[in-house]
Amino acid sequence: MARGRKKRSRRDESTRDTPDRQAQEVEQLREENQRLHKRLEEYAKRIADLERQLALKEQNSPLTSKPPSSDGLAGRQRERGRRVKSRRKAGGQPGHPGHHRELAQWNVWMRSWISRRRRVATARAACTPGIRSGIRVGIKSRSCR
């Protein structure tokens, strides 16, 4: 090894062509900065548009003087079905004593049905002869009521 000779380090090599590398790096950073500014402007426009749409959706008839028919699909829909489902099935639960009306005896029911039919038949019979014979004048309908 020669004493007067210095070893070259990597640091010395990188400093030798720094003006060219720095100029390239500055140019790359400027291009990237411009590209990011364009994206930022696009995002700002998109955010403004979405905020405008949201403001329009929140304007509905209860909040403005618009009629309810103009709401359409705008606005938040009211929450439906807030009922919490229980673990039991609908209807009577097992083991619960039922409440019901006692059945009438058959002969009592039949007598009331027959008497009801007779009353209706006699009312109709009392009403119809006058209409058929034309005795009643000025009757607007054929109803007996």
Task: Explain the overall architecture.
By secondary structure, this protein is an all-alpha fold. 52% of the residues lie in helices and 0% in strands. It has three helices and no strands. The model has no long low-confidence stretch (mean pLDDT 77).
* Class inferred from helices and paired strands: mainly alpha
What is the share of helical residues?
A: 40-55%
**3D shape:** elongated
| Count of extended strands | 0
In DSSP terms (H or I, runs of 4 or more residues), the helix count works out at 3
Unreliable sequence segments: none
Question: How much of the residues is beta strand, in percent?
Answer: under 5%
Distance between the termini: 137 Å
The helix/strand order is HHH
What does the largest sheet look like?
Answer: none
Q: Could you tell me the mean pLDDT?
A: 77
Q: Radius of gyration, Cα only, in angstroms?
A: 48 Å
Quick structural overview:
52% of the residues lie in helices and 0% in strands. It has 3 helices and no strands.
